[in-house]
Amino acid sequence: MHYNAADPRPSASPATDRVLVIGYGNTLRSDDAFGPVVADRLRQIVAADRVHVITCHQLTPELAGDIAVCERVIFIDASLASPAGELACRPLDVADMGTGALVHSLGPDQLLVLARLVYGRAPPAMLVTVGGLSFELGDRLLSPPVAAAVEPAVECIREQIDLRAITRDVRA
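Now predict its structure.
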């Protein structure tokens, strides 16, 4: 389901009913692996016909096409801005975002703006983060407070998928 700017723009028809989950972070940097670890766990327990799960090191412009054709998108990442182990789920609203600088590595909000600019559609989105404790070398070695947040994050995301809690669609 990967698209790029050279592909034809998705039509104005409704998006697929699949939810896109993107877990991102450096799996070699301890707690930064939170996004991929949670995404891998979700991949094991959600229906592949309803949820498309991607893991990646960082968010790149190539993901904009995948985002534009989904019903909703959920981003998962570790954060330096929250206390260690603190889980946060917040909706992202691209309606109020400007275009800003679009570079090689993007944040979730910038990627949504890019999807809207290039493909004419940015689906409703949510960002799930956990405060990280250690970003030292450690292959998927989560600190205890971050490891404890994996299952609550999985449950939070499953609720979002099952309840279709994100409902607003933003069009260009």
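The helical segments are 34-45, 64-68, 108-119, 144-147, 150-163.
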